[in-house]
Amino acid sequence: MRIILFLLLFISTLSFAQDKTPVKRDPYLQTPSTAQPKQVKPEDKVKIIHADKIIKDPAKYEGNQYFTGNVQIEHQGSILTADEVVLYSEENFVKAMGNTKLQNADGSVITAGEMEYDGNTQKGVARKNVVLTDPKQTIKTDILYYDRLANQAYFNTGGTIADSQGNVMYTKSATYFLNTKMIDFVGNVKIDNAQYIIEGVNIKQNQNTNTAEFFGPTTITNRANPKNRVYTERGTYKMGSKEAFLNKNSKIFYNDKILTGDDMYFNQITGFGKATGNVTLDDPKERRYIKGGYGEIFEKKDSAMMTKNPYAVKAMEKDSVYFAAEKIISYQRPDSLDIKIKKSFLRAYKKARVYKSNAQGRADSIAFNETDGIMHMYTKPILWSGEKQVTGDKIEAYFNTKNENIDSLRVIGNAFAISKVDSLNLKDEFNQVKGKFMTVYYEKNDIKEARVVGNAQSIVYVDDTDQETKKPERIGITLSACGIIGALFEERALQIISCSIGATSDTYPMSKIEPGRRKFPDFNWNTRDRIKKWQDILVDSPEYEETKYTSDSELFDKAQKAIDDEKAKEEAKKPKRTRK
Fold it and tell me: Name one GO cellular component term (predicted).
């Protein structure tokens, strides 16, 4: 019975062939007017497999025959079913209406309200509630263009694509390559996932590898915390492992911080990210940024690390602080007294340098509690402030978090403070105070006072005002030693205001104190490594030429010469013995 029905359909198709009217096609299916009619082999013709009725109505479909009721047609291994089909046999063209379904040999299925299909070019158009499904995803749109030879499907009227990984893509225009399972999105694209949202203007997604490539401004936003997101203008994203590889104008936003670099990587599951090239880690809340050649971030630990000539800038209202070292680490930790409060910390390791307009320093490592304003300098620290220098085993600097100035220093172990007697000359004259421990107090951004505890000693140049000239006149040098010393730093002098517990103090005129006693044996005034401007922190040492100071020992030399001369005279008066 089935064979008889097929023969009737075939004979009917031939009998109606002479009355054909050129079909009105979708522009996508139009053939060029200059194209020569193509000779179609019988095996390449669209074939009717089944239909309940064959109808020809001059008033309908330009008089072309059509089939109704469970219509099935076949072409090149694909099966099209519909409620109604118009067959333009001479053009090898089909129009299908009502519950249309195209089952392709590759396993993909297209359903729609209506379809057009050209058997010669193997191109088709599906309209009205179009759905394309295959093992990888489901595409929904209003109009879908497909090319069986190129194995492509395309839409530009807006649509959604849902894949087997739980991703739903929304886009105005997309091309789907069925062989490679690649989707090329053009225009504003949104990929929705349970964990993240991707939005961009040009994205290619490979369904086989579950990878997305970005070719324009694109953002990947964390659903749980929308402030944590990734931005790039060129990159690749592994949608399964949540790994982003970013190559152009990229930024990683995490925990209110921003990481940028030439080439970047970020894993949204582990929270680990890294960047190379011109790397910057910006922390707007802390008003601090770190720059370097390589950086890493750890989102879950809220920490970061920068290497390759890194430096950090802590911006302040009136004066910024600059840090540099071989490695800089920043992190946040909950306050031990209130876990709701987070404190920020900065660590600079190996050859650490710090610059502030009124204080510059060096140490092997520097630790800065940004929240409380406490800075620790470890291993051979040295801190300069104006023409004053402080050294010790460890230095702690305390910043006033309100006015951002240094309030005080604590020097622990081998504390030593040196100040130039007169910064306007190059005389080898330095006031010095040292001991086991020292507390240094600042006033108006300058060292004003020091309190030294434990084996405290001082060398102080003493001046007095000449009553006639009203100019300072050098009296001599005072050497003091006691358990505790209180010293007051003035513009050109160091005044010992207290010396207690086993105190000894002697003042020597300049003619009576030799140059070797004017400095402590461990005197360490350093002008070669001193940081004079913030750019000096960018190198291990600016290596300035050592300042050469002239020794003022004229009075001592004269006195010594007079003593030597007197000794010589006394020696000359002695009778000389001669050997017989």
Answer: cell outer membrane
